[in-house]
Amino acid sequence: MAKLRKKVAEKFSVGIINDNIYEWEVSIFGLDDPYEQGIFKARLTFPATYPLLPPKFKFISEMWHPNVYESGDVCISILNPPGEDAFGYYHDDECWTPVLDVEKVIMCVISLLDRPEPNSPANLNAAIEFRNDIALYKKKVRRLARRTIED
């Protein structure tokens, strides 16, 4: 827990929603360009079978990112249940395992924000823009980051 508290001060904070231990609010901040100055809100929802199955991570703040669906759901292999992917995008060793914890999940999402994977997109338009016009992509993300602190 001390490790989590240290990270809270640096990149994110977490809190339980309405005394429901299965629903957490996450605020991500302190990111690098183009997300800097933004405060991005998300929900971390744990299944009753946690830690055997992974939590769901969904941004509440509007996001423009190749690996975030328009719904806000994050597409990252560690949040997939154990087992081989039928489409071959990831391997079993990249999926959820009960040894992963909340800090690891959030830090992986932060890392994904910093280093998108446009070849495995959840948002095809953001992925195409990221590959073909990085300046426009960053401009949109900066605009969203500014909007998060105005809301």
From TrEMBL:
Record protein name field: Ubiquitin-conjugating enzyme E2 15
Family note: Belongs to the ubiquitin-conjugating enzyme family.
Key words of the record: Acyltransferase, ATP-binding, Nucleotide-binding, Transferase, Ubl conjugation pathway
Domain UBC core: 1-150
Active-site residues, record numbering mapped to chain: 75 (glycyl thioester intermediate)
Gene name linked to the record: ubc15
The enzyme's E.C. designation: 2.3.2.23
Any one GO molecular-function label of the UniProt entry: ATP binding
Segment forming the signal sequence: none
Species this protein is from: Mycoemilia scoparia
InterPro entries membership: Ub_conjugating_enzyme, UBC, UBQ-conjugating_AS, UBQ-conjugating_enzyme/RWD
Organism phylogeny: Eukaryota, Fungi, Fungi incertae sedis, Zoopagomycota, Kickxellomycotina
Name of one Pfam family that matches: UQ_con
